[in-house]
Design the sequence.
């Protein structure tokens, strides 16, 4: 069974490998995924994505729209039920740093919160 720290690293590995099914398998069937980039229709709040299938589809869509990127994990801390990782990725001309918090149970992610400044995505710098 994977630890939360191992799951945090496997998240990066699946994205870098462009492997959406493996990425989806990191999550519980009924997981919740909140990423500041995914907004409610009025744009006022982050929109939760629910369930492994929807989370995997978000990954498929993101990989399709992001042909090249670099993703580095800078730090990871974890215990038996959660992990936090600080990361940096480069998409186009945008350099983005963020933090991902994951809650885990039974070797899968049950809740993920991804926080970063989305402004570099809009400006490309």
Sequence:
């Amino acid at each position: 069974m994977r630890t939360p720290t191992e799951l945090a690293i496997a998240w990066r590995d699946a994205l870098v490998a462009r492997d959406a099914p493996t990425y989806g398998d990191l999550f519980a069937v009924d997981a919740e995924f909140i990423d500041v980039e995914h907004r409610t229709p009025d744009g006022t709040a982050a929109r939760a994505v629910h369930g492994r299938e929807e989370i995997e589809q978000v990954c498929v869509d993101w990989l399709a729209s992001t042909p090249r990127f670099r993703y580095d994990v800078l730090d990871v801390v974890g215990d038996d039920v959660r992990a936090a990782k600080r990361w940096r990725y480069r998409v186009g001309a945008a350099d983005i740093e963020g933090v991902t918090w994951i809650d885990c149970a039974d070797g899968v992610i049950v809740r993920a919160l991804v926080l970063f400044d989305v402004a570099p995505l809009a400006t490309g710098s």
The first strand starts at residue 27 and ends at 39. Strands lie at 27-39, 46-50, 69-78, 82-91, 94-105, 108-116.
